[in-house]
Inverse folding.
């Protein structure tokens, strides 16, 4: 027992030195830990260590802190609430603006207002992918909340179309950043057993935001300038999130990747309060192996090495800023200049690793493909233009009131998907839900073909005038016939099936499938695919309806949904119960164990990426030397 105690003391000293040193010392520590495991075999401790490293993680050995995770999830998912609010507000705003911006909105202006947000979101998603790797998940969420608030204020104060479009672009930047970083952050802090439900909760809040937005749309539809209040109220969640984020911890995986081991250990101990220091250290080793190639990319903060860093974020101000604050501020410019070139090389290395390594490439195709189909089945055409569609069908008194049922079914479907995703599995749930989506779109197309729709072009007021010639006043469905109500029912059924599958799972799968070194850039590209596809849908729907009628448009979407089912069947592996560190094994053997041309290509890419990391490490040593 004395020998064991001495070995443990040696290991603790080695761990302390590891935190104060750079990547080379961490590699040395790994060797020391391995030697200690050999010495501990007689006590049976090695089996426990190996389980923590290669198999079970902390979440399989210790319960997580429910209160702590609730706080993390609630604050982060306010980004999802803002996302949903913006989607829901667009539909009601378009039919409520009327002539408040100097004239009735044309078809092109309506599509411009909707697609402006999408353009901003594309840029935001791409920027967030790189920025989240560099600045951290938490800071990207703060930036997204600030942009959403500024965009809401700009929209509410706009007097002409171009000012409204500017506000929509700002909101889009914030929404795009949140759409990429929030699922990634949640996946990195969530225990494996509840990861699907936690990431899915973000989608639930997206749909809840849509329900609230549709309800506000209906309440303010007949209020003078009511649309300005619609967009202004949307700034409230952004304010709440900005305040909450100052007390939110950073992702432990990101902290490990940046060499901030002290903060990473602190966050893991908060998530798993019953875990021992030794078990937390072994979990950090496990994370490092899953993110091999990233821990040497950025110099460790001197304060972090002394255990004083504030990088963990949040925690009610428990972390100390450190005495090096002024030193860091004065050295920012030289650091930026000296690290700009390595950052470019690093990005190129990550892109090569993302595409040339077979499992990374499979993950990229899967994530981008699912995000493409999520948009191209036409769901957001319904969400953005449901008010206009229902006007065409005869719901003239208050189309926003009729549309509430669509938003409610979206929220219910998302909650159901979140509840069953970890029980049924991603693959099976998505296949069944996509089948239902295809069938309901076909039925919606048929029912719309039986409706005597109003004008498919012109301003909303012109549609109302044409549709109310024989309509009674007062009811939400005034002027709507039996086929119109049946169409509304099929819209709700379509939304329910979509929400269970394509609405929630692409974001969850995107947050899981990428390996640590390429997770940020991979998720950014997948999010950009989503928003680019969204742009195609939102900027063409009204013209598509004019060209091939509403029935023809949804028939086309049904064909796309069928293609989505086939893509899922052939590309998506079963990831039920698989830990985040092991998800990539679902795609097959990694390049390191492969052979032939594919293996050679992947190995070359990995070598190139490692060379980038090594070059950057040398550059960082120079920076540290100048700092000292």
């Amino acid at each position: 027992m004395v020998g064991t105690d001495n070995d443990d003391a040696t290991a603790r000293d080695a761990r302390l030195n590891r935190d104060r040193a750079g990547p080379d010392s961490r590699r040395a520590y790994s060797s020391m830990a391995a030697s200690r495991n050999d010495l501990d075999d007689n006590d049976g401790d090695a089996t426990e260590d190996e389980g923590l490293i290669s198999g079970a993680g902390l979440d399989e050995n210790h319960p997580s802190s429910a209160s702590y995770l609730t706080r993390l999830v609630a604050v982060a998912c306010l980004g999802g609430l803002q996302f949903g609010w913006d989607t829901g507000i667009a539909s009601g705003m378009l039919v409520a603006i009327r002539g408040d911006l100097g004239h009735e909105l044309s078809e092109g202006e309506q599509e411009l207002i909707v697609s402006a947000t999408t353009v901003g979101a594309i840029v935001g998603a791409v920027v967030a992918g790189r920025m989240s790797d560099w600045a951290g998940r938490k800071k990207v969420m703060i930036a997204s909340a600030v942009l959403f608030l500024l965009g809401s204020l700009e929209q509410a104060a706009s007097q002409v179309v171009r000012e409204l479009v500017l506000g929509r672009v700002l909101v889009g930047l914030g929404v795009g950043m949140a759409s990429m970083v929030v699922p990634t952050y949640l996946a990195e802090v969530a225990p494996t057993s509840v990861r699907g439900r936690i990431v899915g909760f973000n989608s639930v809040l997206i749909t809840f935001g849509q329900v609230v937005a549709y309800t506000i749309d209906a309440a303010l539809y007949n209020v003078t300038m009511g649309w300005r209040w619609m967009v202004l109220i949307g700034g409230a969640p952004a304010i709440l999130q900005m305040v909450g984020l100052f007390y939110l911890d950073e992702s432990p995986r990101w902290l490990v990747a940046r060499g901030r081991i002290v903060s990473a250990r602190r966050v893991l101990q908060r998530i798993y309060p019953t875990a021992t220091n030794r078990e937390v250290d072994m979990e950090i080793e496990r994370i490092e192996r899953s993110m091999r190639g990233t821990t040497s990319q950025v110099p460790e903060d001197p304060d972090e090495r002394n255990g004083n860093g504030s990088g963990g974020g949040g925690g009610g101000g428990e972390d100390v800023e450190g005495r090096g604050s002024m030193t860091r501020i004065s050295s920012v410019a030289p650091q930026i200049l000296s690290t700009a070139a390595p950052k470019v090389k690093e990005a190129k290395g990550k892109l090569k690793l993302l595409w040339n390594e077979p499992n990374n490439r499979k993950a990229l195709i899967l994530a981008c493909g699912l995000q493409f189909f999520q948009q191209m089945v036409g769901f957001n055409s319904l969400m953005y233009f449901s008010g206009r569609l229902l006007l065409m069908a005869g719901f003239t008194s208050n189309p926003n009131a009729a549309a509430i049922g669509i938003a409610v079914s979206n929220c219910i479907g998302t909650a159901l998907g979140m509840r069953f995703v970890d029980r049924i599995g991603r693959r099976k749930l998505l296949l069944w839900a996509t089948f239902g989506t295809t069938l309901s779109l076909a039925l919606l197309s048929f029912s719309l073909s039986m409706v005597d729709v109003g004008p498919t072009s012109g301003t909303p007021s012109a549609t109302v005038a044409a549709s109310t010639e024989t309509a009674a006043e007062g009811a939400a469905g005034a002027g709507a016939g039996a086929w119109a109500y049946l169409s509304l029912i099929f819209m709700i059924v379509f939304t329910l099936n979509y929400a269970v599958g394509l609405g929630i799972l692409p974001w969850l799968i995107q947050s899981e499938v990428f390996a640590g070194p390429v997770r940020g850039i991979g998720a950014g590209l997948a999010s950009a695919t989503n928003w680019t596809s969204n742009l195609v849908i939102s900027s063409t729907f009204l013209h598509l309806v004019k060209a091939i009628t509403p029935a023809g448009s949804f028939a086309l979407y049904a064909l796309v949904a069928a293609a989505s089912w086939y893509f899922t069947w052939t590309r998506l592996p079963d990831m039920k119960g698989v830990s985040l560190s092991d998800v990539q094994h679902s795609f097959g053997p990694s390049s390191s164990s492969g052979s032939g041309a594919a293996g050679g290509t992947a190995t070359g890419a990995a070598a190139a990426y490692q060379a980038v990391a090594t070059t950057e490490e040398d550059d960082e040593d120079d920076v540290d030397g100048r700092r000292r």
Observations:
- The mean pLDDT is 74.
- The chain has 26 helices and no strands.
